[in-house]
TrEMBL record:
Pfam families: DUF2621. The chain crosses the membrane at residues 6-28. Keywords: Membrane, Transmembrane, Transmembrane helix. This is DUF2621 domain-containing protein. It comes from Salinicoccus roseus.
Amino acid sequence: MNDIFMWGIALWTFIMLGAMTIGGYFMFRKFLKRMPKEDGYSELDWQEHYIDKALPLWNNEARHLLNELVSPVPELFRDVAKERIAGRISKIALDEKADNITLDHIMKGYIIATPKRDHKFMKKKLDDMEIDYSPYEDLFQYADDEKQKFSIFEQTEKISSRS
Protein backbone atom coordinates (compact mmCIF):
# COMPACT_ATOMS: atom_id res chain seq x y z
CA MET A 1 0.00 0.00 0.00
CA ASN A 2 2.86 2.34 0.84
CA ASP A 3 4.49 1.77 -2.60
CA ILE A 4 1.29 2.74 -4.45
CA PHE A 5 1.06 5.96 -2.46
CA MET A 6 4.70 6.85 -3.22
CA TRP A 7 4.22 6.14 -6.94
CA GLY A 8 1.11 8.34 -6.88
CA ILE A 9 3.08 11.19 -5.33
CA ALA A 10 5.87 10.75 -7.91
CA LEU A 11 3.34 10.76 -10.76
CA TRP A 12 1.58 13.82 -9.32
CA THR A 13 4.96 15.60 -9.03
CA PHE A 14 5.74 14.99 -12.72
CA ILE A 15 2.28 16.13 -13.79
CA MET A 16 2.57 19.34 -11.77
CA LEU A 17 6.09 20.04 -13.05
CA GLY A 18 4.89 19.52 -16.62
CA ALA A 19 1.91 21.83 -16.14
CA MET A 20 4.07 24.51 -14.53
CA THR A 21 6.62 24.26 -17.36
CA ILE A 22 3.96 24.65 -20.04
CA GLY A 23 2.34 27.56 -18.19
CA GLY A 24 5.73 29.20 -17.65
CA TYR A 25 6.51 28.95 -21.35
CA PHE A 26 3.33 30.82 -22.30
CA MET A 27 3.81 33.37 -19.53
CA PHE A 28 7.37 34.03 -20.73
CA ARG A 29 6.14 34.56 -24.31
CA LYS A 30 3.57 37.06 -23.06
CA PHE A 31 6.29 38.77 -21.01
CA LEU A 32 8.48 39.13 -24.13
CA LYS A 33 5.59 40.70 -26.04
CA ARG A 34 5.18 43.23 -23.22
CA MET A 35 8.86 44.24 -23.38
CA PRO A 36 9.27 47.75 -24.81
CA LYS A 37 11.05 48.09 -28.15
CA GLU A 38 13.34 50.94 -29.24
CA ASP A 39 10.41 53.38 -29.39
CA GLY A 40 9.42 52.63 -25.79
CA TYR A 41 6.26 50.71 -26.70
CA SER A 42 5.73 46.97 -26.79
CA GLU A 43 4.01 44.93 -29.49
CA LEU A 44 0.89 44.72 -27.32
CA ASP A 45 0.94 48.49 -26.67
CA TRP A 46 0.93 49.17 -30.42
CA GLN A 47 -1.77 46.57 -30.96
CA GLU A 48 -4.00 48.25 -28.37
CA HIS A 49 -3.21 51.68 -29.82
CA TYR A 50 -4.32 50.71 -33.34
CA ILE A 51 -7.45 48.96 -32.10
CA ASP A 52 -8.46 51.97 -29.96
CA LYS A 53 -7.77 54.44 -32.75
CA ALA A 54 -9.72 52.44 -35.34
CA LEU A 55 -12.65 51.51 -33.08
CA PRO A 56 -15.05 53.93 -34.81
CA LEU A 57 -14.24 52.28 -38.16
CA TRP A 58 -15.53 48.88 -37.03
CA ASN A 59 -19.17 48.24 -37.92
CA ASN A 60 -21.30 45.32 -36.74
CA GLU A 61 -20.79 43.39 -39.98
CA ALA A 62 -16.99 43.62 -39.68
CA ARG A 63 -17.11 42.56 -36.02
CA HIS A 64 -19.34 39.62 -36.84
CA LEU A 65 -17.03 38.53 -39.68
CA LEU A 66 -13.98 38.72 -37.41
CA ASN A 67 -15.76 36.65 -34.75
CA GLU A 68 -16.68 34.08 -37.39
CA LEU A 69 -13.13 33.91 -38.74
CA VAL A 70 -11.62 33.22 -35.31
CA SER A 71 -14.28 30.67 -34.35
CA PRO A 72 -12.04 27.65 -35.20
CA VAL A 73 -9.39 28.87 -32.73
CA PRO A 74 -9.64 27.02 -29.41
CA GLU A 75 -11.61 29.12 -26.94
CA LEU A 76 -8.65 29.45 -24.59
CA PHE A 77 -6.66 31.33 -27.26
CA ARG A 78 -9.53 32.94 -29.21
CA ASP A 79 -9.44 36.36 -27.50
CA VAL A 80 -5.70 36.69 -28.04
CA ALA A 81 -6.02 35.69 -31.69
CA LYS A 82 -8.91 38.08 -32.20
CA GLU A 83 -7.01 41.01 -30.69
CA ARG A 84 -3.93 40.23 -32.75
CA ILE A 85 -5.92 40.05 -35.98
CA ALA A 86 -7.97 43.14 -35.09
CA GLY A 87 -4.74 45.08 -34.44
CA ARG A 88 -3.45 44.23 -37.89
CA ILE A 89 -6.76 45.01 -39.57
CA SER A 90 -6.99 48.33 -37.73
CA LYS A 91 -3.45 49.33 -38.72
CA ILE A 92 -4.12 48.51 -42.36
CA ALA A 93 -7.37 50.51 -42.36
CA LEU A 94 -5.72 53.49 -40.65
CA ASP A 95 -2.78 53.42 -43.08
CA GLU A 96 -5.22 53.47 -45.98
CA LYS A 97 -7.20 56.29 -44.31
CA ALA A 98 -10.38 54.25 -44.66
CA ASP A 99 -13.80 55.44 -43.53
CA ASN A 100 -14.72 51.98 -42.27
CA ILE A 101 -13.37 48.45 -42.08
CA THR A 102 -14.10 46.51 -45.27
CA LEU A 103 -13.74 42.90 -46.33
CA ASP A 104 -10.49 43.89 -48.07
CA HIS A 105 -8.98 45.18 -44.80
CA ILE A 106 -10.19 42.12 -42.92
CA MET A 107 -8.72 39.71 -45.47
CA LYS A 108 -5.34 41.47 -45.49
CA GLY A 109 -5.12 41.58 -41.70
CA TYR A 110 -6.43 38.05 -41.25
CA ILE A 111 -3.90 36.57 -43.67
CA ILE A 112 -0.81 38.30 -42.31
CA ALA A 113 -1.85 37.78 -38.68
CA THR A 114 -2.38 34.04 -39.08
CA PRO A 115 0.75 31.96 -38.50
CA LYS A 116 1.96 30.00 -41.53
CA ARG A 117 1.41 26.72 -39.72
CA ASP A 118 -2.35 27.52 -39.58
CA HIS A 119 -2.86 28.47 -43.24
CA LYS A 120 -4.46 25.13 -44.07
CA PHE A 121 -7.15 25.70 -41.42
CA MET A 122 -7.56 29.34 -42.42
CA LYS A 123 -8.12 28.45 -46.09
CA LYS A 124 -10.62 25.77 -45.09
CA LYS A 125 -12.57 28.31 -42.99
CA LEU A 126 -12.56 30.82 -45.86
CA ASP A 127 -13.75 28.11 -48.27
CA ASP A 128 -16.52 27.13 -45.82
CA MET A 129 -17.60 30.78 -45.66
CA GLU A 130 -17.38 31.01 -49.48
CA ILE A 131 -14.89 33.87 -49.35
CA ASP A 132 -12.54 34.04 -52.33
CA TYR A 133 -9.00 34.56 -51.09
CA SER A 134 -7.29 34.20 -54.50
CA PRO A 135 -6.75 38.00 -54.89
CA TYR A 136 -4.74 37.86 -51.64
CA GLU A 137 -2.52 34.85 -52.45
CA ASP A 138 0.61 37.02 -52.53
CA LEU A 139 -0.01 38.09 -48.91
CA PHE A 140 0.55 34.60 -47.56
CA GLN A 141 4.30 35.20 -47.79
CA TYR A 142 4.01 38.02 -45.21
CA ALA A 143 2.24 35.86 -42.64
CA ASP A 144 3.73 35.24 -39.22
CA ASP A 145 6.46 32.67 -39.16
CA GLU A 146 7.87 31.34 -35.91
CA LYS A 147 11.33 31.11 -37.51
CA GLN A 148 11.42 34.77 -38.52
CA LYS A 149 10.77 37.08 -35.61
CA PHE A 150 9.63 40.54 -36.59
CA SER A 151 7.22 43.16 -35.39
CA ILE A 152 3.62 42.23 -36.01
CA PHE A 153 3.16 45.52 -37.85
CA GLU A 154 6.19 45.46 -40.18
CA GLN A 155 4.34 43.73 -43.00
CA THR A 156 1.63 46.36 -43.32
CA GLU A 157 4.04 48.75 -45.04
CA LYS A 158 4.84 46.03 -47.59
CA ILE A 159 1.22 45.23 -48.33
CA SER A 160 0.23 48.92 -48.62
CA SER A 161 2.71 49.29 -51.45
CA ARG A 162 1.25 46.22 -53.20
CA SER A 163 -2.02 47.98 -54.15
